[in-house]
Amino acid sequence: MSKLFEKLNLRSKDEGIPPKEPTEEEVKKLREEYAKAGQDQVFAFYDGLSKAEKASMYERLMSIDPHHINSITEKALKPPNDDSKEEAKLEPLPDSATASILDSKPEDIEQWYNAGLDLIAEGQVAVVLMAGGQGTRLGSSAPKGCFNIGLPSQKSLFQIQAERIRKVQQLAEKKSGKKNIVVPWYVMTSGPTRKPTEQFFEENKYFGLGKDDVVIFEQGVLPCISNDGKILLDSKSKVAVAPDGNGGIYQALLTSNVRTDMRNRGIRNIHAYCVDNCLVKVADPVFLGFAASKDVDIATKVVRKRSAKESVGLILLKNGKPDVVEYSEIDDSTAEAKDPKQPELLRFRAANIVNHYYSFRFLETIEEWVHKLPHHVARKKIPCIDTESGETIKPEKPNGIKLEQFVFDVFPMLDLNRFACMEVKREEEFSPLKNAKGTGEDDPDTSKKDILDQGKRWVQMCGGTVENESGSEDAGVEVSPLISYGGEGLEFLKDRTIKAPAVIEKEHSG
């Protein structure tokens, strides 16, 4: 079975114990296997490598099944003709599968919140963070979670999220009367971000969380492929590889033994999300309580689409199955259609924010469906070695493809009664960090502003007043997650004046 896992998703090799040099017979056998697959160009420089390079190259090539790579590349480049594609029937999810924080009854929301805190108190909740990305577009080579968005406290995204976990643990302790409640945090990195992520957590003492309760693991990689289907070399001694997309999370839960760890801890409910959302409610009790009350296998959070033209994926029914349809796949008339029940709203408005709930029983079935997940093609400029001349190629236009899987490709495999969707307020829960400072959209300044605006709203809701000291109209308040998870517990600010910009880290702050 482990052989199959390696075929499906290759693990990025750790720089731990140096690999052992293979025998001539072992190399001969492997060359023949690659030659049968028409991929023996990967051995072009093998004979001239050092012993250590040969050992490392052999280990990497052993972890790849070239026939499997040929097969998934072929399927990705030439997907089977699907006549139903043009006439795919798109419908919004039915009311039975949805709820909205915007118009749910307060007593329902409170019931979900309390139920979620109970699940946390029972030790049944874990969090999986997808944190494989580097901050390249932000002008940083560090993992995106290390990024400081410029808050008055100078906290990184990792710290903000860690403190939300600490707070939700405390809220569950307060409600249940139990002590030492733990929500384990599984942080999925990629090859380039694993070591810097581990170091960042160690240097910051895991932001107050238990070291054993922060599990850092790695998503798989797949070889980069040339436009004519050949596995590319990054150097004479290295295969060019790339992370396998956020859909690699399912395989990584197996190969890293994270699922086993969850099982040993008695986890039943999992919250998974992306690192770049500074407003994410990590282990949100309302979301957990909602999903558990519906007894679904997957639930997803969405925000209301801003306009017909906003380029976001939409969660809907496609041919009767839950799915995500990209903006580019929807024609104008569908995008602009109004909801017959609420004509002021778009009919298709459930914007995907990659914020999901999974039942553990569903993750127990990964082996049954992971091999069915499709691979998608991303055409890229991939630096590589010319296997004929040995020269380095730095392409000016896309010369190859990276294969990746999407986390939501599993949705259509579910029956509708196993899937649910919760609409949340964008200004409270979604502010992604995608672009460099100064872009004006989804950049460090908008992330910072969204947190400070949220804090200002919370202070005002508790009867406090916010005055701008800096002369800026939009100066706000940063409320530490350790003080308030979602606006609760700020009664001490009633009738007080906060001079913004301000940080509220303790009850006597201000």
What features would you describe in this structure?
The chain is globular and about 80 Å long. It has an eight-stranded mixed β-sheet with strand order 3-21-13-16-12-4-5-6. Strands 1-7-11 form a three-stranded antiparallel β-sheet. A three-stranded antiparallel β-sheet has the order 2-14-15, with no helix packed on it. The longest helix is centred in the first third of the chain and has 20 residues. A hairpin with a 2-residue loop joins strand 9 and strand 10. The chain is built from 15 helices and 25 strands. Helix 5 crosses helix 6 and helix 5 crosses helix 10. It has 510 residues and is α/β, with parallel strands linked by helices.
Distance N to C terminus: 58 Å
Based on helices, strands and strand pairing, what is the structural class?
Answer: alpha/beta
Query: What's the pLDDT, averaged over the residues?
Result: 92
Low-confidence stretches: 1-9
Helix-residue proportion: 25-40%
β content, as a range?
A: 15-25%
Spatial order of strands in the largest sheet: 3-21-13-16-12-4-5-6
The number of helical segments is: 15
Largest sheet at a glance? Answer: 8 strands, mixed
Total beta-strand segments: 25
For the CA atoms, what is the radius of gyration? 24 Å
- Tell me, what's the shape? globular
